[in-house]
């Protein structure tokens, strides 16, 4: 659950860094690809996160768990 919460926050952090013009750890700027990936992860978690958590708790592999 903690990992899902952290992953959800990544989209907001990435968007804030992009808007502010912050520098990455490597000294570059946030790319559109990085923003798109962060948003895709956020949307996937909203759509499948609860089902994936239930599957993990039951020790079964489901399509929702595979997407996470």
From TrEMBL:
Protein name as annotated: Glycerol dehydrogenase
Residues passing through the membrane, by range: none
Keyword Repeat: no
GO molecular function: metal ion binding; oxidoreductase activity, acting on CH-OH group of donors
Keywords: Metal-binding, NAD, Oxidoreductase
Organism: human gut metagenome
Keyword Protease: no
Record's GO cellular component terms: cytosol
């Amino acid at each position: 659950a903690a990992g899902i919460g952290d992953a959800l926050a990544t989209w907001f952090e990435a968007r804030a860094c992009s808007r502010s013009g912050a520098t990455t750890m490597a000294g570059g700027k946030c790319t559109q690809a990085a923003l798109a990936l962060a948003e895709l992860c956020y949307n996937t978690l909203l759509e499948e996160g609860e089902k994936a958590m239930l599957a993990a708790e039951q020790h079964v592999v489901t399509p929702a768990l595979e997407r996470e």
